[in-house]
Design goal:
mainly beta
C-alpha cells in the first residue's frame, strides 16, 4: 500500500491549491481517506476526511466552507481543493487511509497508511 501526496506549493493569501492523494495497492472504495496537516511547532491535526463510498465528508471548523474533499474512484485519487487560503493554512499536508466502510475516523492513530507529505506555504 502506498499513498502519494502532491500539489503543494507557495501561494498568496486568498489563493487556491488542489492537493491530490494517489492511492496504490488499495481500493479507495473500502477505505476512509483523510487529510492531516502539521505546522511547525504544532500537533498534527485532521483537516478533512471522506468515507469509503464518498457519501460522508468531514471538515475541521478552521477550513469549513473553504476546502472541499472528493474521491475519484476511477483514478483512485482523493483531492483536497483549498480556496481562500490563509497564512495559518501553512503546513505539511499528509493523506492517510484506514480500512473502514462506514465512518470517517477522526484520530490520526486510527489511520494505518500515510503518504509522505506535501508542503503548502501561504505567504505574500
Amino acid at each position: 500500500v502506498q499513498l502519494q501526496a502532491s500539489g503543494g506549493g507557495l501561494v498568496q493569501p486568498g489563493g487556491s491549491l488542489t492537493l491530490s492523494c494517489a492511492t496504490q495497492g488499495l481500493s479507495s472504495s473500502i477505505y476512509a481517506i483523510a487529510w492531516f496537516r502539521q505546522a511547525p511547532g504544532k500537533e498534527r491535526e485532521m483537516v478533512s476526511g471522506i468515507s469509503a463510498r464518498g457519501g460522508q465528508t468531514y471538515y475541521a471548523d478552521s477550513v469549513k466552507d473553504r476546502f472541499t474533499i472528493s474521491k475519484n474512484f476511477a483514478e483512485n485519487t482523493v483531492d483536497l481543493q483549498m480556496n481562500s487560503l490563509k497564512p495559518e493554512d501553512t503546513a505539511v499536508y499528509y493523506c492517510a487511509a484506514r480500512l473502514n466502510l462506514f465512518t470517517i475516523p477522526l484520530m490520526s492513530r486510527e489511520y494505518d497508511h500515510w503518504g509522505q507529505g506535501t508542503l503548502v506555504t501561504v505567504s505574500s
